[in-house]
Design a protein that fits this description.
This protein is α+β, with helices and mostly antiparallel strands. It is built from two helices and eight strands. The longest helix has 17 residues, at 122-138.
Length: 155
């Protein structure tokens, strides 16, 4: 992903699961992980985000995979929240890489974690939702949520 924002890309699927890459990039940081989803999870994400934001207090969260060493397949949490009454909003992406299966470090097993926050706009969320519906239906492709480049007002 060359631009700032969030991307969800289908890697492969079988009758049981869909593997996706979830990446996020801000002006200063970037991260990505791979997670396994059930068929229909991308549609559920699109349904959750439809119409966001509706108010200055709107907040929506979604989590894929499980964080921590109990599950070794990576995890992603996307928290969407409004910052003002003018439809300015942010998405906070917390991404964790899969835990190593046979790697032993001096202080135990490790996984990398990134927390990236980018500013977004309602129109961008609408495009992202449409793309999520498409990649869920086709089980291929990618959905991109572009970050805004102008500064949000400070309250």
């Amino acid at each position: 992903m060359d631009n700032h924002g969030v991307a969800i890309t289908v890697i492969w699927d079988d009758p049981d699961v869909v593997e996706v890459s979830i990446s996020a990039r801000s002006e200063n940081f970037a991260g990505s992980t791979r997670v396994y989803l059930a068929h229909g999870d991308l549609k559920a994400l699109a349904d959750t985000l439809r119409g966001f934001p509706v108010s200055a207090l709107d907040e929506r969260d979604v989590e894929f995979g499980k964080f921590g060493r109990e599950r070794a397949h990576g995890a992603a949490r996307l928290k969407f929240y409004s910052v003002d009454a003018s439809a300015n909003a942010c998405v906070e992406a917390t991404l964790e890489t899969p835990w190593p299966r046979a790697t032993s470090w001096p202080h135990g097993e490790v996984a990398e974690t990134a927390r990236i926050v980018v500013k977004i706009e309602a129109a961008g969320v609408d495009r992202f939702v449409s793309q999520l519906f498409a990649i869920d239906r086709e089980t291929k492709g990618a959905a991109y949520l572009s970050a805004v480049t102008h500064h949000l007002p400070v309250n």
